[in-house]
Amino acid sequence: EMISTESAPTQTHMDLYARALAQNGQRMATDVVSLAMALNALYTGPTIALVSFVRAGLPLGVLLKRCLNDLGRDASHYGLSIIRDRGIDTVALEAVIKKHGAENIVFVDGWTGKGAISGEIRRSLAGDARFPADPRLVVLADPCGKAWLSASAEDWIIPSGILGATVSGLVSRSIWPQDGGLHGCVVYEHLKDCDVTRGFVDDIHALTEKVESAPVSMPWTAEQAQALQASALGVVNGLAANHGITNLNRVKPGIAEATRAVLRRVPDHVLVRSRDDEDVQLLMHLTENAGIAVEEAGEQLGPYRAVTIIRKVN
After folding, report:
1. Is residue 143 classed as helix, strand or coil in its secondary structure?
2. CA–CA separation, 18 vs 34, rounded Å?
3. Architecture category of domain 224-310 in CATH
């Protein structure tokens, strides 16, 4: 399978990343602490195996491991591939299960958009009695209510969400192996000079150590999850109907997904709740550079603050 190369972020992109880090770094640190305390309480076994999905889950997984270690817990961290419509890397997952036991595994991703990865986990693990019917997926932000545990349901600019390889150890998106076996990836050595991975993790971890109190995150109740799912699905279906879309994979809701779609895909439409929203300024910068019009959609976006609709591939 082919994978495109990744360009170095521009100076403006990095300036906006730095602004997002200054603006929301403390919030992310507090949310990491909230999630770590929840996992510490909910996982009573001898160890916790954090299985982050490559790539968006990697920074959060590393931070959760550090925080759990700070709480005195034994925790290990792994990066694992999951590919939409293809499934999870079962070879790698079996290796983690063999070492730690399925009951001690928690899956980690950065956020949810419309819940595609959550659905892929369920499909991949369907019928595997070692895992619960609703696999334990932990994220920072879950506006669509598809995760098991989230720090909030708010769509906000997660600093690591606006970079790609350069905040994820220089690894590419994962690559499906046509002949079976482990999923693959590429290490983007050409981006080494702009890699901020360790600095980002160190900065957020330092902020977690200054958190004096944080609420302990709790899994969504069935009622909470249903309400979030209905709201998010209503927005996605409404946008699809308005734009004549039959393949919902073209709709990329949420600030992080909308921004990444503009970086990696060819957008047809970009919508924001408000052009003046501080959290969508990188998206505004990218669209301006690409000559893409941005529509201010207000409350039409429901729980989302930005949505990108990508062009249909013939």
Report:
1. coil
2. 24
3. 2-Layer Sandwich (3.30)
